[in-house]
Automatic annotation (TrEMBL):
It comes from the Bacteria. One of its GO terms (molecular function) is intramolecular oxidoreductase activity, interconverting aldoses and ketoses. This is Fucose isomerase. The keyword Transport does not apply. SUPFAM superfamilies: FucI/AraA N-terminal and middle domains (SSF53743). GO terms for cellular component: cytoplasm. Coiled coil: none annotated. GO terms for biological process: monosaccharide metabolic process. The keyword Isomerase applies. InterPro entries: Fucose_isomerase_N/cen_sf.
Length: 466
């Protein structure tokens, strides 16, 4: 969580107990430190360490901008000053978390000290007037498990938004001619979402491959890694080309400042290098640099979002929805020629040959089963959405490439969603349940969440702390 910094701005209103608001702000600070949350405080600006004064709010905004915060957290120690919260949130344009500690019973004289919950109602309304999206964590105690869950979930949401707003994809070659399904609107992606592409031709890649082979050192390290971690069923000269391709793609991604790669994996590359790029893709995916096939830009966007939702702890895999399970009515095969990271594999993977091509360089392994999230960012005709839901791995027949059989709640419904669009046969998977994180992140990035499990109320309940 150290990569995400929250702007911590506890708030109060003057007609309620200021000492109690200060008390709860301190308790919340201590709890965040206990949880390992990185935050920038305002107690060096506001005399009481609370947001309620407009002059302080201006200085707080300047400090938060300087510190490049990734999200705003507004604990309502008492009722809170809703317009100062809204003004600060509007100016900072980052995800916003609202929460307040449970109120005590009135004292023996019928006096209430804080009215935290009532203030949250007011702040929510004013944020809507300011057209500021926000996340609400239920009015609970600091010791309640839903507080920690809500904080961690919100930090992951901030991670997705941060990653999404800084996407730059290395596009290696145009899409394969036959793959009309992977076309994208580059101008619209930039105008709508600041998603940037760095297109390069195949010869620029092959030039870097030759350089990597000449320099040898990095290529030899990659070859050694492959021999230790894969069953290698290709010639040494072919493994050298695979390793050099991996080194070249990493160098080009760094050179162009990219956080994902979309490569035209066939068929120009085979004429130039004589290999499939799948194993090289697998190696980079394992390092946390998502690489997707068939120049699928929307697939690369999906992978970045999914990795960020998992707080970069678990690697994602890029797959085709392919065929129905022979026995399970809600079962489906997820498969691709071999770009999946080795940490997804249930066995030692093999570098060999793909299903539909004659050139070496694919990875073969069945993936781990267990619970997963599957998702797909896509759009057409100016509308973008994120298909997402859960699945679990199940037994199924052997097939070539990297693969896993999965079961979903209602495959017929999901199948219709993919066919009717705006989605295609590609998706991204991760062995984590990141559905609530991705769902909530959508409200901050202007993308419509599309839950194929039809469980929106369950997801919302999880986010708010039920």
């Amino acid at each position: 969580m150290e990569n995400i910094v929250l702007g911590f701005a506890p708030t109060r209103r003057s007609i309620f107990s200021a000492p109690d608001a200060v008390k709860y702000a301190e308790l919340t600070r201590s709890k965040l430190k206990e949880l390992g949350v990185c935050f920038t405080d305002i107690n060096d600006i506001a005399e009481d360490g609370l947001l309620h004064d407009d002059a302080d709010r201006i200085k707080i905004a300047a400090k938060f901008k300087e510190k490049k915060i990734d999200g705003l957290f507004f604990p309502h120690g008492n009722f809170g000053t809703e317009y100062e919260v809204a003004r600060l949130a509007k100016e900072l344009n980052v995800p916003v978390l609202l929460w307040g500690p449970r109120d005590e019973s009135p004292d023996e004289n019928g006096i209430r000290l804080r009215d935290s919950q009532c203030g949250l109602f007011a702040t929510g309304k004013v944020l809507r007037r300011f057209q500021v999206p926000f996340t609400y964590l239920t009015n609970c105690r600091l010791e309640d498990p839903e507080f920690e869950r809500g904080i961690r979930n919100f930090i992951a949401v901030c991670n997705v938004v941060k990653a999404y707003r800084n996407i730059r994809i290395l596009q290696i070659g145009p899409r394969p001619y036959d793959f009309w399904s992977t076309m994208c609107n580059e101008g619209e992606l930039l105008e709508r979402f600041n998603i940037q592409l760095a297109p390069i031709p195949i010869p620029e890649l092959t030039l870097e491959v030759r350089k990597a082979k000449e320099e040898k050192a990095e290529v030899l390290k990659v070859m050694e890694y492959c021999k230790e971690n894969f069953e290698v069923a290709v010639k040494d000269s072919e493994l050298e080309s695979i390793a050099a391709l991996k080194v070249a793609m990493r160098k080009l991604a760094n050179q162009y400042g990219c956080n994902a790669v979309a490569i035209q994996c066939w068929n120009a590359l085979q004429g130039e290098l004589g290999i499939m790029p799948c194993a090289a893709n697998s190696l980079l995916n394992e390092e946390g640099l998502p690489v997707v096939c068939e120049t699928d830009i929307h697939g690369a966007v999906t992978a970045i979002m999914c990795e960020a939702a998992g707080m970069d702890k678990a690697r994602t895999f890029f797959a085709d929805w392919t065929v129905r399970h022979p026995d399970n009515e809600n079962g489906e095969l997820l498969q691709h020629c071999g770009p999946w990271p080795i940490s997804c594999a249930a066995c030692k993977p093999k570098i060999g040959y793909p299903l539909a091509f004659r050139h070496p360089g694919a990875v073969e392994a069945e993936a781990k089963q267990g619970d997963m999230t599957l998702c797909r960012f896509d759009g057409d005709n100016g509308e973008y959405s994120l298909l997402l839901g859960n699945a679990k791995g199940i037994p199924g027949p052997y097939t070539k490439g990297t693969y896993v059989w999965v079961e979903v709640k209602n495959l017929k419904k999901l199948e219709a969603k993919i066919v009717e669009g705006p989605y295609i046969h590609h998706c991204v998977g991760i062995h984590e349940n990141v559905v609530p994180v991705l769902y909530e992140a959508c409200k901050y990035i202007g993308v419509k969440p599309d839950l194929y499990d039809d469980n929106e109320e369950e997801v919302k309940a999880y986010i708010r702390g039920e």
